[in-house]
Sequence to fold (707 residues):
Amino acid sequence: MTHLPLDQQLLDTCAALLLLLSFAMLSQRRIVTLVNLYALQGAVLAAATLLLAWRTGEDHLYLSAALTLALKVALLPWLLHRLIRRLDVYWDTEPLLNVTGTMLAGLVIVVFAFALAQPITRLASTATRSAVGIAVSVVLLAFLMMITRRKAMSQVIGFLSMENGVFFGAMSASYGMPMVVELGVALDVLVAVLVLGVFFFQIRERFESLDLHHLESLKEHD
Amino acid sequence: MALLLLLLLPVAGAAVLGVIGAHRRAPEVNALISVGTFLAACALTARVIHHGTVLLGDEQFFIDPFNVFLVALTAFVGMTTALFSRPYMRVELDHGRLSAGRLRLYHSMYQLFMFTMLLALTTNNMGLMWVAMEGATLSTVLLVTLYRTPGSLEAGWKYFILCGVGIAQALFGTILLYVAAGKVLGAQGMTALLWTHLDAVKSQLEPTVLALAFVFLLIGYGTKVGLVPLHSWLPDAHAEGPTPISAVLSGLLLNVALYAVVRSKVLVQGALHSQLPSQMLMGFGLLSVVLASLLLWRQRDIKRLFAYSSIEHMGIATFAFGMGGAIATFAALLHMTVHSLTKSSIFFTAGHAAQKAGSQAIEQIRGLITLSPTVGWGLMLGSLAILGVPPFGVFTSEFLILTTAMREQPWATPILLAALAVAFAAILSKVQPMVFGETTVRRLAHPPALLPVFAHLAIVLLLGVYIPPYLAEWYRAAAHLIGGP
Fold:
């Protein structure tokens, strides 16, 4: 058996944890826990970035790790928790596909994601390139979560988790993006959550619920 | 300098209007800022005409023949829409559909939206372009939901989630591009996402990764273009938001998203040895044209009707870009221009018509021409123009696209012709009773601003009859840049 250096092993562990957290989110119906899982995913992401920064000596990765920590572990979960409290949405209803079905679909997706990541893994010259498959899996699993959930809140967390996956992909394939782009993306995500906050209040004011079945009247007229 | 002004004016405008946007004179301030932005765009255009492609701000910005005409177009339509929205929003305020506070939000976000559009067009950095495109969604979500009706909330939610997911795919595509470029340009360079640098080395980029990147980019930005089957947000957002926003979404956002797709296509086509990007664009384009023209028959809402027509026309332009070659690309650029001008003018008149009738339902709008001949004729002429009736510019571009298709992709020609015929019959049969016949409409407190409508239509007419030589030269240069020799 070949021995991997310790930091490599740690990075692989982080990647595995990310995938595990994605599955946990997929099966979780309690929205508060969902936010906590999202925060945990952010923390693992920040840890992975930090490890990578330490290992490659790229200065901008330290910044990027700090940004992740501030935004995805502290600020966004705090905003989401506040929203949950003020809107009083704690549970998602039964998902469109039951948990077993979702999990099985998730497994198929992971296999597909690794196949999709093959050419990227071959091209990338980073030490972490094997994790690209996991990044693609996280993106697709988040997508699955968005499709199968009914509450607006869960869909948003799915959306944010998808962004985590994309971010991890950037990191493992090319040690992150240029700083100006990363800042821009972070800004967009933050604004998106703020806009959504406003938006949820508008929905609630109008329907007195955040269940998305209210939002299905604009069908094509027959 | 002109570029700085072009980008700073809308930002400053957004900040100022964020404070005074509820003031009685705020619509005038909004229009004034838009006029300023347009003048800056003119100055920039003049500079590019004289000096050719310019790189600015440490190569982060660049203006070449392709984007400069879109910058000018965007600033122009932004200006005319601001002029149109002046009386329109006052009427909405009078009818109690809006409060003064929401008007402030509207004005501020309108300028912010203009900024994101112009940033997406002028930036050289594919990453910044992504940021600006996402910013464009975010600044318009709250505008779509401005009326807070159940329908508008649903439309806003759909818009946010679909475009959000789409744009996340585009981010992934951008990352793949960065990975492939890092291999050639040196991984840690700030330059690896700059379009000009990517363009210079595109033949050395790894083909498989670029093909994958293109799929993600096309799905991502294609959602914003409204390509079928990713279009379902578009009719809702157009129908439920305030009319000036429908006009800029249709006239500008779709164009800018298509611009992003084409920029990506140029890179990927250069790296690949196959026709994959062209075929994908043609496929999506054709599907959009066909499906949208069939769905036109089922529409009962005037703004939804023209939203589907936008999907159809974006499909035509996408198909033409897919065919490639000098003439088809020239035609596609012309089509983007005339569609943008015509469609925004149609939305202006449709908005006034809906206000006069008190409803957006096509059945409720009858006999516009008896009460206000200008609105009636505006709608009729706009519809004829968008349907490609000869003297108008849309005819020229569609004619060029069809004749090229006959030569290069003969199989597609009958499909395109049939779809255009279906669209013609559908729109005309719905517009005709709205304009003529027994009237149901009433007069409004503020006279409509119809100058923008006829200014747009006059330009479209002019482009149909005679394309000024420098403009033709401009299109040719851009076509050469995108389509190859």
